[in-house]
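[agent] plan:
  1. take the single chain provided in the ticket
  2. run structure prediction with default settings
  3. attach structure tokens to the ticket
  4. add a short note for the reviewer (M.T.)
[agent] executing step 1
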Amino acid sequence: MSALGAGEIGEVSADQGGASRVSSREMNFEDALADLGFQRSDARATRGASLYSAGPNRFMTYSVHVYEDGTALFSWEFAIADYLATKGIQIGSDEALNQFVFPREDIRGPQDSAWLVGAIDRTEASLRELRFHDPEA
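[agent] step 2 finished; step 3 output follows
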């Protein structure tokens, strides 16, 4: 993926990992979020921030908190119990309600399309490294 300058974004395309990517043209951060599939979620907004969410698949949710100070916070959660149930595997007592995988630390950065695409790329790379059959690899 090519690096984008501050505030640059454009047409959305899918890469081999399935995530949306953008080509360069001038656009504000809210438009960039929309191009990447994020929708504003007023129901879960926090004081001083707007929340945007995207679901790249039925188990994964990406979240971006957009703050008034020009920063943003990227996080994600993966419904691991629901996913494993589709594979005939359960976790613990099979209570799926609170069984999510999420990062130990969220990623904070500028309200910039290149930063957001980079955060998504790093998340996907980290998840691709999971190997349940060979956890020491």
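[agent] step 4 note for reviewer: Residues 12-128 form one domain.
[agent] ticket updated
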